[in-house]
Amino acid sequence: MVQRRSFSRLIFEIFNTLFFLLVIAACLIPVIHVIFASFSEPSWVMKQSGVILYIKGFNVEGYKLIFQNRNLVSGYLNTFFYVVATTVLGLLLTVLTAYVVSRKNLLWSNAIMFFISFTMLFNGGMISTYILVTKGLHLYDNRWAVILPACLNGFYIILVRTAMQSIPDELEESAMIDGANRLVILFKIILPLLKATLATVVLYYVIFQWNSWFQASIYLRSRSKFPLQLILKEILVTGDVTSTANTVNASDYSGDLVMYKQLIKYCTIVVSTVPLFIFYPFVQKYFEKGVMIGAIKG
Q1: From CA 118, how far away is CA 103, in angstroms rounded?
Q2: Residue 253 in contact with residue 246, Cβ under 8 Å?
Q3: How many Å apart are CA 43 and CA 37, to the nearest integer?
Q4: Which of 24, 157, 236, 288 registers the highest number of CB atoms within 10 A of its CB?
């Protein structure tokens, strides 16, 4: 039997649909604007003051320019290195920490969890962290200065810990009876049951490190170690496209690289976001499930 909807329910669904259509439009229009502008004629793009919703004179000269930029290419490679290193090392440390604090017989477990939770609300501040990284650990202008501070996060530990606590104790007890040690139990029994939660944590690590530029800006001085987002920040915020201009022959572009300034910005944004657009769909299906597993116990 089909239940008849009331007039108020119908009005609500109409406004609800319109609202989310506006949200979708607000998210898609900037993406469409940037992509279409990146493939349009640079002279036409410079004259536009509003949203670009179509391609005018298809060309890929902007992409040719940015891929001739040695700084952009090295930034891409550096970012991939930072993302992979932070994710692998961070996930390993998070899993090991979460497993230890998830054990019911751990001494002072409540005190340890208090200090982990405390770090989510308070930290030493930028100055003390800078002194620790540069003077204490001697990592100034070192790639590890970008990787190590991002490896552990209190929220990720709590998320994985809660998911581990939802696994029946009988699984671990039966494995110990069969002679399995703690590492075997963790990596062969517990982790395979937490794929959704681990995929969620991986997504957090990847997005955070891919978008990170501030840590690199204060700890790194060698341009050969700059991540992609720091170079993108220079291009977008300061309008510095001289590094791109210096890598090409100006005569190939009628001696007027200024005309390509706006186009280079759009192309750089597209190139820097494409990897996330490709990566996200593969882990999106685990995201909601992983968060819920780590948030609800019992």
Answers
A1: 20
A2: no
A3: 11
A4: 157
Other CB atoms within 10 A of residue 263 CB = 26
Q: Which amino acid, one-letter code, is at 103?
A: R
The pLDDT of residue 20: 92
Q: What is the DSSP letter of 252?
A: G
**Residue in the block written with tokens 């001697």:** 138
Check if the beta carbon of residue 198 is closer than 8 Å to that of residue 285: no
Which one-letter amino acid corresponds to residue 73? V
User: What tokens does 44 get?
Assistant: 């036409």
271 near 50, Cβ under 8 Å?
no
Separation between Cα atoms, residue 203 and residue 208, nearest integer Å = 8
Q: Tens digit of pLDDT for each residue in 97-131?
A: 999 998 888 888 888 888 888 888 888 788 888 99
Cα(288)–Cα(75) distance, integer angstroms: 32
- What is the spatial distance between Cα 40 and Cα 259, in angstroms, rounded to a whole number? 12
The predicted-structure confidence for 44-91, as pLDDT tens digits, reads as follows 888 877 888 888 888 888 888 777 777 888 888 999 999 999 999 999
- Phi–psi pair at 22, nearest 5 degrees: -65, -40
Domain with CATH 1.10.3720.10 in the chain: 70-295
> How many CB atoms within 10 Å of residue 70?
14
Distance CA 116, CA 153 (A): 9
Q: What is the greatest pairwise CA distance in the chain?
A: 77
Distance CA 50, CA 27 (A): 16
Class of domain 70-295: mainly alpha
What residues of the chain score a pLDDT lower than 70?
A: 1-5, 237-258, 285-298
Would you tell me how many other CB atoms lie within 10 Å of the CB of residue 141? 11
**Secondary structure of residue 152 in the 3-state scheme:** coil
E strands, the chain, are none
